[in-house]
Every structure is written in C-alpha cells, then in structure tokens.
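User: Can you recover a sequence for this backbone? Please restate the input before giving your answer.

Assistant: Of course. Working from this structure:
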C-alpha cells in the first residue's frame, strides 16, 4: 500500500510539473494534461483536472491572444495525435492549391439515391454534407491531398457544429457572433443568417468580439483543448490584416478563402426554395443528422492522393464491418485536373471495386462532379463489378469550358473583396 501511495505521489508531482511546463505556444501541452488526468481517473482516485481550478485556468490561457502562431506542421501533428486521422499518406500538395469550402452552388442537381452507406469517403470539403445526410452514413472519412481542408473541418467546423443546436447558431458562431437566444432552424432563418453574414467587410472582427466569443466557446466543455487552441488562433487572426498572417491555416491561396460563411452563403443562395429540403443546413432534421456525425466522432480525416491504393486498403482493414461504401470524388478527375483524366477515373473505379469487394448486394456508389464552375454536372455510378464502369465519358457531349474563364472569375471575386470597406487580401 505504501509503495502504491508513493508511486501515486510521484506521479502527481510529475503531472503538476508537466502542467506547469509551457509549450512553445506559451500554454500547457493538452496531450500531457489529458494523459495525467486519464491515469488518475482510471486508477480510481477520483481526481480530475476538469473539476479543478487548474483546468479552468488552462482554458483561460488557451483563449488569450497567442504570442505566436503554431506552424502548419505542428497542427498536423496535433490532428494525428488526436486519433482522428484515418490515414496519413504522401502527397504532392503545394500551398495555394486547396479549397476550404465548396463552390458548387447548383449541388441540388446531384442524383441522390437515399440508400444507406456504412462508410463514405469524401473529397471536396463540405460538398459531402448533403450526400452524408441523404445516405444516413455511419461514418465519414474526409480526404484531401492538402492538410488545410482537413484542419479547417476538424478544428473549426466540427467543434462549432457540436455546440450548435441549429444551423443559424452554427453560422453565427462561425461569423464571430454569439447567438443571443435560441434561433429556430427554419429555412427562412438559415437563409437570413447566411445573408446577414455574407458581407466580407464583416470578416475582420473587433478584439472585444473575439474575447467574448472565445470565453463563450471556452465555457462549452464539448470543445476540446486543442480545438479551443485552434479556434483562438483562427479568430484572433481575424482582428486585423496584419494578424491574418498568423492564421493557423497557413498557405491558403488568399485570405478571402478563409471566409467560410461567405462561401456557404454562395453555395445555398440560388437553390430553389422547393429543393432546400435536401440542404444539410436549411432542413433541421438534416442538420441534426450531420451534427450527430461530429458529436459522436464519426468523422475521420485522411491526407492522401485520390488514387492511392494503400489508402483504400487501410480503410478496408480498419473498417472490416463496412459493406456498403460511397465515394465522392467531386471534380478531381475533371479536365486533366492534377493530371487525372476520365481514363484514370475508370481505372480508379475498377481498382476500388476489387479492393472493397463490391457486389450485387453491396454495390459501391461513386459520386462525380464535372466542370470548374456553374453549371456543374453531377453523376452517380452504382458499381457491382467492372462491367458497370462506363466505357466512355458521357460528359464530353457538353464540351469543355474555357479554363481561363475561371481565372477571370477568381480575379473578379478577389477584386470585389479587395475594394470593400475593409480589405481582405
């Protein structure tokens, strides 16, 4: 008994020392704190930093304006250490090549099937939201060749969605505003809230707004320390153009691409009212289903090339009970994007059919988007064997748009924001 008590005393002293040792960020390492706390609680001593003054102090330190930004590599390591990375592959990602939110403002043309899927692999950030709720998926693996969309979803979207009862509350928090009261998730309220926060001039926040917001977020214990730390970085970086250099999403192509609520507004603003029932935001039942995925940690992340066979083999091994798979590749295989063509899409589908063992009773569903901009075109392939893989690209009949038009559109969008009342670079 004495030996056990002595061991406990030494462990507690070690924990206290660890908790007093700041990281380069100037805060306590949340991994060390979690390890100490878990050991003490699981050992039956009934001790928890969650109920101690030290826990509150830790969260208070976390929401203070950071002295310096953590590197992108550090944030990747944190996500890896959290246990939410399903796969970490080698990619040829280069900064400025990523999208943090979808621009498919005609997503309602997707050929939804309403068929349940055990596992969905989703490339393309929030473009998976409507697919996931339509298919009532059990688990989602959000994949990208860039770490930025993964970090944005894991550390901004996920924690804010977990504490939001409705989509308007989620949009308000994302915009830096604390909901003053419960906002019903009606389609009208969702559209109004999106439009209210669509002005890029409101992207820059006042310091007192950020302080109040982060104190509010800190009071929600559903938000983990590493998430709170990322959110503090993200929102403090929005207090001035100079501070934007300290965004935790280093390498994004332009600051305007951090304007999530503006991107979401654009995605939904032109959808006919008669079709908003499919929206993951405008339909409260759908928002609840999407939120449940984040609440129950049913969203994992993967940094991978779309055609990496090791990625799919790894998922097959880690999810042995998953029989019905769905994959959304968005427009990755469109117009030689990243070196891919329709021929590589055909090879991709054939290999995946074999890898996961698709069959008549458990078909593989692949969702594909074409074109860079509106009008997009959407296809669904229900694959049970190689004979179901299309031989020819049915999208060829539409012809190919001028790729330079997208550069022109992007420049026009950036100019619009640059010339606004408050500039975002």
């Amino acid at each position: 008994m004495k030996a056990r008590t002595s061991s406990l005393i030494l462990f507690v002293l070690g924990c206290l020392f660890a908790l007093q040792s700041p990281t380069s960020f100037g805060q306590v390492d949340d991994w060390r704190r979690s390890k100490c706390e878990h050991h003490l609680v699981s050992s039956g001593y009934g001790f928890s930093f969650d109920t101690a003054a030290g826990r509150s102090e830790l969260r208070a330190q976390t929401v203070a304006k950071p002295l310096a930004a953590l590197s992108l590599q550090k944030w990747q390591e944190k996500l890896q250490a959290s246990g939410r990375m399903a796969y970490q592959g080698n990619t040829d990602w280069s900064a400025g090549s990523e999208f943090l939110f979808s621009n498919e403002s005609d997503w309602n043309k997707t050929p939804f099937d309403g068929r349940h899927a055990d596992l969905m692999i989703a490339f393309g950030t929030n473009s998976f939201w409507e697919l996931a709720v339509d298919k009532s998926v059990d688990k989602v693996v959000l994949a990208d060749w860039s770490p930025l969309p993964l970090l944005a979803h894991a550390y901004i979207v996920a924690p804010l969605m977990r504490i939001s009862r409705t989509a308007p509350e989620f949009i308000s928090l994302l915009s830096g505003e604390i909901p003053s009261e419960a906002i019903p998730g009606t389609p009208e309220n969702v559209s109004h809230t999106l439009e209210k926060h669509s002005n890029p001039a409101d992207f820059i926040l006042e310091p007192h707004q950020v302080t109040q917001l982060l104190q509010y977020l800190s009071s929600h214990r559903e938000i983990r320390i590493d998430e709170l730390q990322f959110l503090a970085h993200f929102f403090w970086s929005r207090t001035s153009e100079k501070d934007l250099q300290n965004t935790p999403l280093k390498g994004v192509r332009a600051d305007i691409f951090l304007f999530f609520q503006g991107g979401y507004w654009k995605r939904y603003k032109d959808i006919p009212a008669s079709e908003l029932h499919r929206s993951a935001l405008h339909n409260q039942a759908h928002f609840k289903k999407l939120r449940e995925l984040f609440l129950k940690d049913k969203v994992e992340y993967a940094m991978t090339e779309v055609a990496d066979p090791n990625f799919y083999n790894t998922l097959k091994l880690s999810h042995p009970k998953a029989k019905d798979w769905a994959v959304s590749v968005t427009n990755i295989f469109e117009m030689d994007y990243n070196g891919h063509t329709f021929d590589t899409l055909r090879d991709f589908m054939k290999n995946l059919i074999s890898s996961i063992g698709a069959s008549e009773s458990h078909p593989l569903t692949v969702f594909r988007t074409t074109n860079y901009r509106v009008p997009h075109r959407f296809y669904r392939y229900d694959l049970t064997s190689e004979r179901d893989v299309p031989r020819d690209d049915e999208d060829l009949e539409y012809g190919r748009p001028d790729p330079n038009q997208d550069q022109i559109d992007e420049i026009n969008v950036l100019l619009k924001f640059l010339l606004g009342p408050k500039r975002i670079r």
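That completes the design. Confidence is low (pLDDT under 50) at residues 4-9, 16-32, 37-52, 417-425.
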